[in-house]
Design brief:
heterodimer; A: mainly beta; seven-stranded mixed β-sheet; B: 0% helix
Chain lengths: 115, 112
């Protein structure tokens, strides 16, 4: 079974530029999550999708961050414009079904450096 | 509000010695608890979970965790640590609609 795929693995941009991250979850997983992991901290949930609908985006800084999962499969997270404090690893995770399985499976992450 | 505390920043043990990584939690209702491990430049890997049942939960790579309701703890343990166990360990609690709240993580260093 293929795992959660993310790209790119690394990205360096200057502040005020825009950037986009892509995630392809495990096949059949209805729920998809985006987390932000700042160095020295645990992952923080940014947004949760179930199929192509948003379940929770309460911690997403909506003035600069946006995410979509148009066909209920892969997802894109965008930052525009980036700030220095956005430097972090962005993790995508997926889970089978919110009613039966609780494990989340994580991709390798995208390490973003904003200079 | 739900939260997880991992009080130690780093845990150092000698290879072959027992390893314990501490976690305490705060959540309303029954706790669903998880441990994940993160190796350098890798995503988080699921180790084990407590949902219900026996307080001692066995997981991957010889790890186990003990759920203690009265102490609101869910400590991760391994009887004999390996150098390859050196990694970052995260405790997490499930809340809301299947969301995870993570602790800050513990760096485990196993000395040969």
């Amino acid at each position: 079974e293929a795992g959660v795929a993310q790209s790119p693995r690394y990205k360096i941009i200057e502040k005020r530029q825009s950037v986009a991250f892509w995630c392809n979850p495990i096949s059949g997983h209805a729920t998809l999550y985006w987390y932000q992991q700042i160095l020295g901290q645990g992952p923080k949930l940014l947004i949760q999708f179930q199929n192509n609908g948003v379940v929770d985006d309460s911690q997403l800084p909506k003035d600069r961050f946006s995410a979509e999962r148009l066909k209920g499969v892969d997802s894109t997270l965008k930052i525009q414009p980036a700030k220095l404090e956005d430097s972090a690893v962005y993790l995508c995770a997926s889970s089978l079904d919110t009613g039966r399985s609780y494990e989340q499976y994580f991709g390798p992450g995208t390490r973003l450096t904003v200079t | 509000a739900q939260s997880v505390a991992q009080p130690e920043d780093q845990v150092k043990v000698a290879e072959g010695n027992p390893l314990t990584v501490k976690c305490t939690y705060s959540v309303s209702g029954n706790p669903y608890l998880f441990w994940y491990v993160q190796y350098p430049n890798r995503g988080l890997q699921f180790l084990l979970k407590y949902i219900t049942g026996d307080n001692l939960v066995k997981g991957s790579y010889g790890f186990e965790a003990e759920f203690n309701k009265s102490q609101t703890s869910f400590h991760l343990k391994k009887p004999s640590a390996l150098v390859s166990d050196s990694a970052l360990y995260f405790c997490a609690v499930l809340y809301g609609n299947n969301r995870l709240a993570f602790g800050k993580g513990n760096q485990v260093v196993v000395i040969p």
